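Reopening: structure tokens for the iron/sulfur cluster complex, inputs below.
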Amino acid sequence: MYKTFQIKESLPISFQNEVEEYLTPEVVTIKLPPNHESLTKNNIVYKDTILFLSNYNYYSPISGKIIVNNSHELQISNDFMENYYQPQNSSRQKKYSIEEIRELLIKYGFSNFQILDQLNRKKIIINGINCRPYQINQQKYLLNYSTQILETCDILYESLNPQQLIFALSSKNTSIIELYNNNIGNYPYIEYRYFNDEYPLCYPEIIASKLTISPEEILYLTIEDVIEMYQIIKRKRPLSEKYITIASPEIDKSFVLNVKIGTSLKDIIVKYQLPTTNMLYLENNILNNDVINPQEYIIDHTTQAIYILKENIEKPGRCIGCGKCNEVCPFDINPLDKAELVNCRRCGLCRYFCPQRLDLGRSKDNA
Ligand code: SF4
Ligand code: SF4
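Re-run output (same inputs, fresh job):
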């Protein structure tokens, strides 16, 4: 059984209720993978024009004109028209073959393409647990998109024909539990399971082991995956915007932001007057040390959260050999052993529990 931990949220971070929207950036930037041909400068693009083909198709999140195309990035200037390449085409179809689902996900650039070979697995786990400290974008999706999430469950259940569809929720989030339980009559096949907010339950093998299911048997989906599937399968559109958490003890109210993919963090900083002097900006997991340059960072499909913390001027201490880092690692890795670190899953627990605050675990650059 994997070790999991409750993380005390002791930083003075409080969230506002409303989701903020920033859907009209002047410019979006799309990072180009190496050796891929994309549209050229001065091309006019619609909102779902394919920009380039990579592991997955990459679509324009806005309509406008390509103003920069160098070897590594493409910039599109927004015409604010939101012109679509295709007419709106929301489908009522509930049942597809597995191959049809796979083709749709490939066609519309589903970002978690690793699961494309897992669609025929026997059990589906949808993870709606509050998985990471100070990260609430998934919880906001659960509250604001319950109809779409449940409709997607229906499509997945009808189409993939799993033996079980398990929906994991945080036991402390009573308003979400109530919301989904109110719909239980329409979706009787969904098996809800409730978990304490323990970390790192956001790893497929860990939540599978808590449910005593083999990880090889499961199709593991996050709430973000389900939202993207809804957009693709139901609306026949690629994902062009997403919820991210912006959290900091240095701002009055932290918030969830609905933002266009491709938006520059520096534009968000200006719009919401976020602090930058002597601040560290971190990406996605506050337990890791994934420092980003806020002036260069672009919101992409992988962005979950941005944390803003005061720069720590205290130098970390020296290892006292207490062994805590090794003891807490859910994956039984000794963070002090370089050879073992190649298997590090970057959960950040060793770093969090180290009494000397040493920067442990594998760095993002080596991921
Ligand atoms: S937890 Fe920190 S101080 Fe203790 S052994 Fe690990 S690195 Fe050293
Ligand atoms: S070694 Fe890696 S997987 Fe293990 S606790 Fe540290 S960050 Fe997590």
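The pocket of iron/sulfur cluster (ligand 1) is lined by residues 319-325, 336, 354-356, 358, 360 (CB under 6 Å). The chain has a mean pLDDT of 93. Marking as resolved unless the reporter disagrees.
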